[in-house]
Structures are given as structure tokens and as C-alpha cells.
Design brief:
By secondary structure, this protein is mainly α.
Length: 200
């Protein structure tokens, strides 16, 4: 099933050559959109009633991706699953060939971690759209990574689940710790990074 679903998505490239440039660009540089969402959410957090907590929540959304990247290495290195295009003949690899492992997807893990981190942070922000938008972008990233030949569906699903679990399960303790840091930081001359107005 994993092979068949990968082939079905990957072979869409046969009929959509016009999409190759967009797909490879998003598969390679699409994480920049998640960085932009984090930046927008941080700006929003600075204008909330309790900016220290809101900024801490957004910070965790970004930090969760880093934790996810570490988890991917710990899980993926021992398994060392080969990339699908190295195993399945007649498939397309639209990116440069890499020698690192395929399972779980590092892009899937990182983007899901940011997306679910922003979803959890939504209740602290003035606007809640950051999380849902990031989840849609993360799903598109997962499909795109199969389209360009980088991952099996199970790689993407595992990465998505891993990133979501890290972002949500660790959200409360991580945000609590980060809130202490942001409150301390808010008492320094650089407090503009935490609160938009001096009286917050």
C-alpha cells in the first residue's frame, strides 16, 4: 500500500510538468513560509494583554520544530530507511539525490510541529488563523515531498504525527518554562521583543 500510494502521487509528475518548478521550490524552500508565520504570530503576541505568555507560546511553536529535528535523528538513524526512488524503479526524483534516511520525514516533522504549536498558541493570540493555515501548508508539504520523490507516505505520516505529538504534549511544560524566561527578559532594555507597549 505504501509503495502503491507513493507511485500514484509521484507519477502525477508525468502529467504535470508545469508543476515541477513550483513543487521543487516548495519542497526545498517552503519551510520559509512557516518561519514567516512564526514571525507574524510573534508580532501578534507582542500586542496581546499578556505578551510574555503569548510570546512564550509562539516561541515554543518554533522550538518544537528543533526538538522534532532531534527526534527525527534519534529515530531515523537506527532504522536507516532508503529513499523510495532508490528502491522503486520507474519513479521520479525532482530534487538532488541525498544519502540520508527517509523515515520519518524531517520536513513533515518540523512543519507539523510548527503548525500544531501555533494551533495551541492560538488561544493566547489576537488571531487564531496561524495554526490552521500552517496545518494546511504542512499537509501540502507532505504531499509535495511524495510528488518530488523524497518520501513514502508512511514517512510523511510518521513525521506529521511525531511533530504534532511533540508540539502538543510538551506545550504546557515548555510554555511554562519559556514564560519565566520571557517575563525576565521583559524587565530588560530589550523588552520590545516581548511587548509592543511599555506598560505591558
Amino acid at each position: 500500500m505504501d509503495d502503491r500510494l507513493f507511485k500514484w502521487v509521484n507519477h502525477l509528475a508525468d502529467r504535470t510538468p508545469w508543476l515541477h518548478g513550483i513543487a521543487t521550490t516548495y519542497a526545498t524552500y517552503g519551510v520559509g513560509l512557516f518561519a514567516a508565520l512564526l514571525l507574524l504570530a510573534w508580532w501578534d503576541a507582542r500586542h496581546t494583554d499578556d505578551p510574555a505568555v503569548a510570546v512564550a507560546a509562539v516561541t515554543w511553536a518554533g522550538a518544537a520544530a528543533l526538538v522534532g529535528a532531534l527526534a527525527v535523528q534519534l529515530i531515523g538513524a537506527p532504522i536507516n530507511r532508503a529513499r523510495p526512488t532508490a528502491v522503486i524503479h520507474g519513479t521520479h526524483l525532482l530534487l538532488e539525490r541525498t544519502t540520508d534516511f527517509s523515515f520519518p520525514s524531517d520536513h513533515g516533522t518540523a512543519t507539523a510541529a510548527v503548525a500544531f504549536g501555533l494551533l495551541v498558541a492560538g488561544s493566547r493570540l489576537r488571531h487564531r488563523w496561524y495554526g490552521p493555515v500552517a496545518i494546511v501548508l504542512a499537509l501540502l508539504m507532505g504531499i509535495d515531498r511524495m510528488y518530488v520523490g523524497a518520501h513514502y507516505p508512511s514517512d510523511v505520516i510518521a513525521g506529521f504525527v511525531l511533530g504534532a505529538l511533540i508540539a502538543t504534549v510538551l506545550a504546557r511544560p515548555a510554555t511554562r518554562i519559556l514564560t519565566r524566561a520571557t517575563r525576565a527578559f521583559a524587565s530588560t532594555p530589550a523588552r520590545v521583543l516581548i511587548a509592543a507597549t511599555p506598560d505591558q
